[in-house]
């Protein structure tokens, strides 16, 4: 019991979410290039224009300006798991705090921001400085994603595997301490998986017969298939790593789970949704419908092969849209390399707590598929009783008692931040602001939610 609240209190999924992209009007950029004076400053203090957080359009303001047809340069402050545009990042955080959350500095607010592994001391200090000096928040904390993912799964030891949009991190954690010297970071993510899936979708005749696709040229059609593949990753429940026969067997034993729906009073909506799926001809044929460019398109079972490059990077060779120069490391190779950097007596313990983060965490069958693919790599180790083996692999999931997060392991770092917010907030109103770099329309999304404690 803390702050008058039971530790088992229900946690809720994110209330607010927006794409972490920013835009600057071309007129502003032209003015900066020409050295025009900044009209927002007093006459006797005017200086040449420069980019400020206020120069950026964010959220609905950006969307409205785009719809109006005004020339705008779009950019993404987060790339490859890091901040590359600090002014743009500040504009995004400002939008979250001031517009979406109603300026929490007026209250005693604890603001939590999650960060990926390997953040430098200078980067941590710069983020902290922005929130204290620019936003004037009274209490602030930086939380590391690997630790939060394990918290949400009920562990403090394990291996955190974060497959994002354009990068992947594999981070071992022991007693809540990330082992950074053993961590692996490489340039591979759902961006490359989307290109591979698009190459498979070229054989889906039903999909290609859609009127908006059939009218496109070859390159335009492939680009459209990449967009559709990206949209599928925004619906991880549509994806499965299980072989078709295993998937059928799994569905036989599935029952309507209304625990989360009962919590939120949406049980009838869930039942109606289930009935609609059963009456949907596309669903009955194993197809999945997504929205693309204002239309509904139906994708066949071939989408279930999206995961193949995770275990065989050679499948990406020759595909347009995949950087030939980037390091290609399969997931088992990355895991084993990371394990080899850890003390040998800790490896079994680390393998006993694998946590998958990112959109793939919401797909089915990861644990069943990983063990047979990683076993050949583990068997190459020294013949030592302490050597990790595939039998030690255990993939952790979010516990069922977090009803709102059941089967939503892709939100585990957000749940971990929420748990910390509840436990540490005491007399504060908590705001969990999490960053997750797996939005397929851009490298990152910002997810925020207020927790009034």
TrEMBL record:
<comment type="similarity">
    <text>Belongs to the actin family.</text>
</comment>
<dbReference type="InterPro" id="IPR004000">
    <property type="entry name" value="Actin"/>
</dbReference>
<protein>
    <submittedName>
        <fullName>SWI/SNF and RSC complexes subunit arp9</fullName>
    </submittedName>
</protein>
<dbReference type="Pfam" id="PF00022">
    <property type="entry name" value="Actin"/>
</dbReference>
<dbReference type="InterPro" id="IPR043129">
    <property type="entry name" value="ATPase_NBD"/>
</dbReference>
């Amino acid at each position: 019991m803390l702050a008058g609240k039971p530790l088992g209190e229900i946690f809720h999924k994110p209330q607010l979410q927006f794409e972490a992209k920013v835009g600057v009007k071309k007129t502003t950029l032209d003015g900066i290039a020409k050295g025009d004076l900044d009209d927002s400053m007093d006459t006797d203090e005017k200086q040449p224009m420069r980019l400020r957080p206020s120069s950026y359009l964010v959220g609905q303001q950006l969307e409205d300006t785009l719809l109006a047809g005004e020339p705008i340069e779009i950019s993404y402050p987060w790339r490859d798991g890091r901040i590359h545009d600090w002014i743009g990042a500040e504009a995004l955080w400002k939008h979250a705090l001031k517009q979406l959350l109603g300026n929490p500095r007026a209250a005693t607010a604890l603001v939590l921001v999650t960060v990926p592994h390997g953040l430098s001391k200078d980067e941590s200090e710069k983020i902290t400085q922005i929130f204290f000096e620019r936003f004037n928040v009274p209490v602030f904390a930086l939380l590391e994603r690997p630790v939060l993912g394990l918290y949400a799964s009920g562990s403090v030891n394990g291996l955190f595997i974060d497959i994002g949009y354009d990068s992947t991190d594999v981070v071992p954690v022991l007693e809540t301490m990330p082992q950074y010297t053993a961590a692996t970071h490489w340039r591979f993510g759902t961006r490359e998986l989307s290109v591979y899936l698009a190459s498979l979708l070229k054989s889906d005749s039903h999909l290609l017969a859609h009127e908006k696709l059939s009218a496109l040229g070859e390159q335009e059609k492939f680009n459209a298939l990449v967009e559709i593949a990206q949209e599928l990753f925004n619906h991880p429940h549509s994806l499965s790593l299980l072989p078709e026969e295993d998937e059928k067997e799994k569905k036989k034993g599935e029952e309507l789970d209304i625990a989360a729906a009962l919590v939120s009073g949406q049980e009838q909506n869930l039942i109606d949704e289930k009935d609609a799926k059963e009456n949907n001809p596309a669903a009955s044929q194993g197809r999945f419908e997504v929205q693309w460019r204002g239309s509904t398109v139906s994708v066949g079972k071939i989408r279930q092969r999206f995961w193949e490059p995770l275990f065989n990077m050679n499948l990406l060779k020759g595909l347009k849209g995949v950087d030939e120069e980037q390091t290609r490391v399969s997931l088992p190779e990355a895991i084993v390399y990371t394990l080899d950097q850890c003390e040998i007596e800790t490896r079994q313990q680390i393998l006993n707590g694998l946590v998958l983060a990112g959109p793939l965490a919401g797909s089915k069958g990861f644990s069943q598929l990983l063990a047979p693919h990683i076993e050949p790599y583990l068997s190459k180790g020294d013949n030592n009783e302490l050597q990790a083996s595939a039998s030690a692999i255990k993939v952790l999931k979010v516990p069922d008692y977090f009803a709102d997060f059941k089967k939503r392991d892709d939100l585990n770092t957000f749940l971990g931040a929420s748990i910390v917010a509840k436990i540490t907030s005491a007399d504060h109103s908590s705001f969990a602001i999490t960053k997750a770099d797996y939005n397929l329309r851009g490298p990152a999304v910002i997810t925020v939610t207020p927790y009034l404690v």
